[in-house]
Write a structure and sequence with these properties.
This is HTH CENPB-type domain-containing protein. With about 180 residues, the protein is mainly α. The protein is about 45% helix and about 10% strand.
Length: about 180
C-alpha cells in the first residue's frame, strides 16, 4: 500500500479481525518527513461490514446485476446454454472488471463511499444498467448484424452476446469512442 499513498494523509478502513487493528502497526509504517502518522485508521465494528464497507453498500450490487444480465441473456436462454463452468466464472469476472473499471463508471464507484457515509461528496453518475444495458440497446445491431444486448462501457459500441462474451470483447475493445466522449 505504501507505494500508492506515499506520504499523503489517508483514511484506512479495516475490518475488526484480530491482529490487524492495532494502530501502532500503521503509525510506524505510514509517516511523513517529520515522523507524524499519515494514516487515519477506522475499524469497522463486528457484524457491521455490510452497513459501512463501500463495496458492500453499493458497488457489489452493480457487479451482481452485470453478472445476472450475462447469465439471463435471451441468447443464452434460447440456446439452452449455461455459463457456469470454472472457465466461464473466470471469464465473467474478467468481463466484469473490464467493464466496471471503465472511466464512465468511475463516479459510480465513488458513490459507494458516499452511500457508506465515508465521504460527503455526492457526484451524479450512471449505473451499469444506464451505461451497458439501456432498453434501446436491443433496438440496435452488433457489427455482425445480430441484435445487440450490451453497450461496452469503454468503447461504447453495441455487441451481441457471441461477439461480447464468446469472442471475449476486451481483446478487441477500442477505446477511441470513449476518448472522444471524454474530450467533449
Amino acid at each position: 500500500m505504501k507505494p500508492y499513498v506515499k506520504e499523503e494523509k489517508f483514511r484506512f478502513l479495516i475490518d475488526s479481525w484480530g491482529g490487524q487493528t492495532n494502530p501502532v502497526l500503521y503509525d510506524e509504517i505510514f509517516t511523513d518527513d517529520k515522523g507524524i502518522p499519515t494514516c487515519s485508521m477506522k475499524v469497522i465494528p463486528p457484524k457491521c461490514t455490510p452497513l459501512v464497507q463501500p463495496c458492500n453498500v453499493y458497488f457489489y450490487r452493480q457487479v451482481k446485476n452485470f453478472i445476472k444480465r450475462l447469465q439471463n441473456c435471451a441468447y443464452i436462454i434460447e440456446q439452452d446454454r449455461e455459463i457456469s463452468s470454472r472457465e466461464d466464472c473466470i471469464k465473467i469476472q474478467s468481463l466484469v472488471h473490464h467493464q466496471l473499471s471503465a472511466p464512465i463508471l468511475c463516479c459510480m464507484l465513488k458513490y459507494a463511499w458516499f452511500a457508506a457515509k465515508l465521504c460527503d461528496d455526492r457526484t451524479s453518475f450512471m449505473n451499469v444498467n444506464e451505461v451497458c444495458f439501456r432498453i434501446d440497446v436491443l433496438k440496435n445491431s452488433c457489427e455482425c448484424k445480430n441484435s445487440a444486448f450490451i453497450t461496452c462501457a469503454r468503447c461504447r459500441n453495441n455487441y451481441c452476446f457471441p461477439c461480447f462474451y464468446d469472442r471475449y470483447h476486451p481483446t478487441s475493445c477500442s477505446n477511441s469512442a470513449l476518448e472522444q466522449h471524454d474530450s467533449e
